[in-house]
């Protein structure tokens, strides 16, 4: 008895007149049912969770929470719900942020009735389709390989964790390779992407040969499937993580399109619980897209003044871009307690506490890099490993409680 399903729509706008206008435009469309209206971002998230609409028509500028943040949260909580952004601004920057947050479509205000219904029908079909796919695939694991395959089958979207230092050589690659391994488990798989595109060395750190690189995935960002990803990724059998290597030659870096890179990240979140990014200190388009997409940024500094000065400039930049300080885990690497520039002092002066300090240990760290065996694998009890495990715990904690207050480590 195939009754054609109606597309269930939630309208979100802080101005009641706009909500009413949109509702009125839709009332003669028999395929559409308006199931609710929300006055702000937080209410939109709550109603999406309880009503599980197929499509959310989302305003961008709202006093309590902007529409992009709400979009991201809804996509994470109700992955099949599709979001159509309705905004007065039509500039590409906004559109890109909206798309990266997981929005399906973007219309400018006021929309024509034709544009609005076309967008809702497109998004609605997509939602109904994804909902039925989720329902049918839920109990069975997805079909890739023999191992228990991550993501897809109704699991929440994975998290993007980016490691970054605005000063080269601070230990970004060292930390992110060890962190990826510390986070990975049977249930929660990790993939490590080498987004240090010109001179990426993740594969070297893990003693793996590069057959394919992310150049094989990025251009296909819109048509990925788990088999293609598994084919291109390198499986690091010593730890279980997957790796997406940087292009084999520096000049190939420019072939990577930043928008497509962003789309690939969003796809990988459906397959992996943790999508980790190693980056270069230079703020390329790819690094900027990563910053926007990241759920957490592990910002790395050392105890030198130039590194601290650069970290300060980076924080000024992220503040200006509206990136919340809670998204940043400020980490001190090569920590030597004999030096008076302590994590507490740096945290205080940059107003960003440093909850993690990874000790300086030339023997353990350079030994592990030269052997291609991250220290968390075979030197678990060493202080450097303990600090990375502590970082992994903090990452998990912050991801489950993103609004949580930053630790008091840098406070008096
Ligand atoms: N905690 C540590 N103790 C001692 N040496 C360390 C530590 N962390 C990193 N190093 C050393 O610092 C050097 C740079 O590390 P790494 O390549 O991880 O930095 P990076 O920030 O990724 O550099 P790049 O800017 O080139 O990408 C390596 O030789 C490594 O052995
Ligand atoms: Mg590096």
TrEMBL record:
Cross-referenced Gene3D superfamilies, in alphabetical order? 3.40.50.2300, P-loop containing nucleotide triphosphate hydrolases
- Gene Ontology biological process terms, A to Z: negative regulation of cell division; phosphorelay signal transduction system
**Taxonomically, which superkingdom?**
Bacteria
This entry's Gene Ontology molecular function terms read: ATP binding; ATP hydrolysis activity
Question: Which PROSITE patterns does this one have?
Answer: RESPONSE_REGULATORY
What are the residue boundaries of the Response regulatory domain, all occurrences included?
8-124
InterPro entries in the record: AAA_dom, CheY-like_superfamily, NreC/VraR/RcsB-like_REC, P-loop_NTPase, ParA/MinD_ATPase, Sig_transdc_resp-reg_receiver
Keywords carried by this UniProt record: Phosphoprotein
Cellular component GO terms, alphabetical: cytoplasmic side of plasma membrane; cytosol
Residue positions of the PTM 4-aspartylphosphate? Answer: 59
Identify this protein by name: Response regulatory domain-containing protein
The species this protein belongs to is Levilinea saccharolytica
């Amino acid at each position: 008895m195939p009754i054609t399903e109606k597309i269930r729509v939630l309208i979100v706008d802080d101005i009641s007149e706009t909500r009413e206008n949109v509702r009125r435009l839709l009332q003669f469309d028999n395929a559409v049912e308006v199931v609710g209206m929300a006055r702000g971002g937080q209410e939109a998230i709550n109603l999406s969770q309880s009503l599980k609409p197929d499509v959310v028509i989302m305003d961008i500028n709202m006093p309590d929470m902007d529409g992009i943040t709400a979009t991201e949260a809804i996509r994470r909580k109700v992955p099949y719900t599709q979001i159509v952004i309705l905004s007065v601004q039509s500039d590409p920057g906004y559109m890109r942020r909206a798309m990266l947050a997981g929005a399906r479509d973007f219309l400018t205000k006021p929309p024509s009735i034709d544009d609005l219904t076309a967008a809702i029908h497109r998004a609605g079909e997509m939602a109904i389709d994804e909902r039925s796919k989720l329902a049918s695939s839920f109990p069975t694991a997805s079909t890739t390989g023999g191992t228990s395959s991550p993501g897809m089958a109704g699991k929440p979207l994975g998290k993007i964790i980016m490691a970054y230092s605005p000063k080269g050589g601070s230990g970004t690659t060292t930390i992110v390779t060890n962190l990826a391994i510390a986070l990975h488990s049977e249930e929660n798989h990790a993939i490590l992407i080498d987004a240090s595109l010109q001179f990426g060395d993740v594969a070297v750190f893990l003693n793996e040969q590069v057959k394919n690189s992310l150049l094989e995935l990025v251009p296909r960002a819109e048509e990925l499937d788990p088999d293609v990803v598994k084919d291109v990724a390198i499986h690091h059998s010593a730890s279980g993580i997957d790796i997406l290597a940087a292009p084999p030659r520096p000049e190939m870096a420019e072939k990577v399109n930043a928008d497509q890179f962003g789309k690939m990240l969003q796809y990988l979140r459906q397959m992996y619980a943790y999508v980790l990014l190693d980056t270069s200190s230079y703020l390329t388009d790819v690094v900027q897209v990563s910053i926007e997409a990241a759920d957490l940024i592990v910002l790395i500094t050392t105890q030198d003044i130039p590194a601290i000065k650069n970290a300060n400039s980076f924080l000024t930049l992220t503040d200006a871009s509206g990136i919340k300080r809670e998204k940043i885990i400020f980490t001190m690497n090569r920590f030597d307690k004999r030096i008076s520039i302590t994590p507490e002092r740096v945290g205080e002066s940059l107003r960003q506490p440093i909850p993690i300090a990874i000790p300086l240990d030339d023997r353990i760290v350079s030994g592990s890099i030269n052997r291609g065996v991250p220290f968390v694998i075979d030197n678990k009890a060493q202080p450097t490993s303990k600090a990375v495990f502590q970082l992994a715990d903090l990452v998990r904690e912050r991801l489950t409680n993103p609004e949580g207050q930053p630790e008091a480590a840098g406070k008096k």
